[in-house]
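Posted in: Structural Biology > Protein-Ligand Complexes

Title: Requesting predicted complex, pyridoxal-5'-phosphate in pocket

I'd be grateful if someone could produce the 3D structure tokens for the following input. Sequence and ligand are given below.
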Amino acid sequence: MSPANLYYFDNNATTPVAPEVVEAMLPFLTEKWANASSPYRIGREVAKHIETARERVAALINADPEEVVFTSGGTESINAAVQSALLVEPRKRHVVTTAVEHSATLRFCESLEKRGYEVTVLPVGTDGLLDASLLEQAIRPDTAIVSIMWANNETGVVFPVKEIADICRQKAVPFHTDAVQTPGKIALDVQTVGVDLLSLSAHKLYAPKGVGALYIRRGTKYWPYVIGGQQEDGRRGGTESVANIIGFGVAASLAHSKVDDVTRRVGAMRDRLENTILNTIPNTRRNGAEAPRLPNTSNISFGSIEAEGMIVMLDNIGVCVSSGSACTTGSLAPSHVLTAMGINADRARASLRFSLGLYTTEADVDYLVANLPGIISRLSAP
Ligand SMILES: *Cc1c(COP(=O)(O)O)cnc(C)c1O
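-- Reply #1 --
Done. Output follows.
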């Protein structure tokens, strides 16, 4: 999966493509290249495989296959969900979200504000947790949708989605959740939680980039975002990215079957990594609540040592980590997630996110904890 001598601790940014996913995709790049909308046999055969993938993605979240629409990824699904709610209820011009969402939600909401919509951005606590009672007060008669992530990509903090869904249901406002970080890490069930719309991205679960899904609960009014052909039952135009969808299906089954394994095995490695760093490197602190939290994610600040330097030195020895979300790396701005938690700019800039995955080994953790203290002491030398 990974090149030799690579120690990959950035699985929340993207994941390697699982070998069984690559294998399942290959026939759709070689002999099974037909258009799934074509009327002849080879087209119909491809269409059948897309439906199998849809069943697999549906099973991952306990939905019906007809409630799953394939998209180009998490960003499109999120944009589509929010936009649809505004278009189906044109008199409702208010959206509720949180300060720690992915840029796919936050930047989209900013663009809505420029077009005259109103957005309420809920704050989080110093532990990154959301107080659901704030949501209750934020919902207004003209609220078109509530869009709140299931789990945060930077801290791993898990939001009380069931409580949020209950409030939305009671107020008759549709609830969309960005669940991109959750598959294969915690169990996802759209029935028990009661969400109306849910976004997924394949490249966060060991499938290729450029494909995702939007779950649309049966009965939810939906206005398509990408409009063209009648693909996806008229809910998303454009010729299907067949091989990617097939890969996504296989990865969804893989994620579904590995949840317990990840929670136990990856969770134990994450805890060992985190505890070793916190106990052996001075001035380190965990960012975000210890629980509820994804089992694979750890966000730690290192005194006042800038993340950029740590990332470069770790990269030099083959270790991949990031500071905050990949989409903002390269800019010197501190993470908006850590800032929203009341963490000051210096500490936020001194923070690294370690995100483990299915292919992380104990040896990877050993290598990192053996090399990190030296790097930190070199960077802290006056
Ligand atoms: C990666 C990510 C997205 C964006 O998904 P893409 O498929 O890369 O567009 C959205 N939300 C969260 C929480 C993410 O981690």
